[in-house]
Each structure stands twice: as C-alpha cells, then as structure tokens.
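Fig. S4 source data, part A: sequence.
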Amino acid sequence: EGELHSVGAVMVGDLLETSGFHVRFLGTNLPTGSILGVIREVTPSHVGISATMLFNVGAVRQLIHAVRAEFGNRVAVVVGGAAFRTNADLWRQVSADAYAADLRGIDAAFTTKS
C-alpha cells in the first residue's frame, strides 16, 4: 500500500513468465486485505513485493507480517526494488525470505529461500 511505481515489478513479472512461472501482477497501491484475498484464492508458492521509495518499507513490513500471520511459511516472500538497495540487510529486517537486487537475481530468488 502506498507504492506507486510499477515498471520494475512488471519487468520482473515478464521475466518470470519467460522462465516458466505463472505470474499474476496485482498492480500498485493495493490494500493488504486485497492482496491477502488474492493469496487465499490463488495459493501461490511465492509472493513478490517491490518498493521503490524507502518510506514504503514500513508498509512492506506490515504486508509481510500479515502474510505470515495468515499463511505462515507456506508462501515465500521475495522483495526487491530500489528501496532495498539502500541497505544490504533490509530484506531480512522486513522478514522476507529472499531478495533480488536486479533482474539477474530474479530466478534464483524465486526458486530458493536465502
């Protein structure tokens, strides 16, 4: 919620699709309840969350905690985006399972837990 940048996330989704993943891009600035509803409906193995601006990291943390509260570790959470490049450990601080710094790291982030 609050994130308005989509170009990077769309590129990630396109790359994952070309690698054989089924991708559902939800868009930007979505409330947590809507995202949780899609996770309930689709039951994905992974959820990708992107944050461009550092001030959106708190919303990412809250979303991850909501995902964990409802789904435990059944859904792996992968984060990326410019906000996470500001601090090498930030993805761990928000309790994500993996981090992709750029498009070259996408496949690995979505297939293994770091």
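Fig. S4 source data, part B ends here. The chain has a mean pLDDT of 93.
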